[in-house]
Amino acid sequence: MGEIQSTDGGSSDRETTVSQLRDVVQQFVDERNWRSFHNPKNLAMSLAIETAELMEHFQWLSLEQSDELLDDPQRMAAVGEELADCLSYVLALANTMQIDLSTTLRRKMVLNRKKYPVDPA
């Protein structure tokens, strides 16, 4: 439970459940006795900060330049790390607030389909 796989042949998105990812984050938090800091306000603020750090990788780039990131392994790794930080805070917030992400996302996509119907053109 909560075991972090190595980056060379470890579990991928296809093999890892949301629950397993939540366990990885919770184990990390518990090992450091950070539960007292993991309240909804702090986690939401931390998520916003990490999102800003992700955005920094794209600041001042043209659309073409941002697409060119895909061909730069170092920059892609840096973007991936920031995205992982964002995801870890999303999972920590879901853990703290006991929100089932799969159910919530499916419900939200139903609402989004109504709000943004497919353009028949």
UniProtKB/TrEMBL annotation:
UniProt xrefs under Gene3D superfamilies: MazG-like
GO term, biological process aspect, one: nucleoside triphosphate catabolic process
Domain of life per record: Bacteria
Cited InterPro entries: dCTP_Pyrophosphatase, DCTPP
Protein name as catalogued: MazG nucleotide pyrophosphohydrolase domain protein
Leader sequence segment: none
Molecular function GO terms recorded: nucleoside triphosphate diphosphatase activity
A Pfam family recorded for this sequence: MazG-like
Source organism: Stieleria varia
